[in-house]
Amino acid sequence: xxxxxxxxxxxxxxxxxxxxxxxxxxxxxxxxxxxxxxxxxxxxxxxxxxxxxxxxxxxxxxxxxxxxxxxxxxxxxxxxxxxxxxxxxxxxxxxxxxxxxxxxxxxxxxxxxxxxxxxxxxxxxxxxxxxxxxxxxxxxxxxxxxxxxxxxxxxxxxxxxxxxxxxxxxxxxxxxxxxxxxxxxxxxxxxxxxxxxxxxxxxxxxxxxxxxxxxxxxxxxxxxxxxxxxxxxxxxxxxxxxxxxxxxxxxxxxxxxxxxxxxxxxxxxxxxxxxxxxxxxxxxxxxxxxxxxxxxxxxxxxxxxxxx
Length: 308
Hints:
By secondary structure, the protein is of the alpha/beta class. The chain has helices spanning 40-47, 69-72, 91-102, 109-119, 135-146, 165-179, 192-198, 216-223, 240-244, 266-278, 294-307; strands at 2-11, 14-24, 29-33, 55-60, 63-64, 76-79, 153-157, 184-189, 201-206, 209-215, 227-232, 249-255, 258-263, 284-290. The chain has 11 helices and 14 strands.
């Protein structure tokens, strides 16, 4: 559905996208994940036709994007990270206004708008002024706007990043519902638990470079390694230097009195780690081995990129 080949984007001497390539399959949810400033929004703005790029190729639905831009953008819906509204309007008025602006040819317009408001769970609030909406309600209204042209491809830029837990859950439930409609969804996010819940494929971008692109299930098979979680009686900061010096330790994550060790050789680590912990002048309160998560994999890949 979407194919990006060696895409480059610079602002003056600042290279934002460094020859990135990836493919998005039709009907899938593609998780485009990275830290703030990694290049996620720039990529989405290029793919939706909002900004130009310097070099590379983009194909959407098998057609070259630049040569067929006007046609292809009609099949695209876009939810920006920070949508804006006329707060004095209500949801019905605003959607009707957008229909007039973009020239959508909607049959049974009132019915379709009502269906959209139902899809994003705003029927009860549809006649309230948008200015009185919560952030989550505004995000859901923006999603309805993105659906006005009945898109085949939906771009979602951090749709749940600024929402409270209830708002995030509502947004994720809507995205999960869209999967049943075979809509291709390009989801940009830095919330890794959200990506784990709804995505079929994961693409990690960091400092304008693609670090990996893989099906979520295969990603776990290839990169999932056990993590050692160790809780100490005292703050373990002074003990970290010793642990970091072992060649079988790949990375260490600190969280108060708990450290998480990512190791290179699980069998060797099992035999060695208890020996080394016994040498520390710090009592171990708890010790467990767990499966790594997408967050662990992400941190590992980003740390490796930082070393290069």
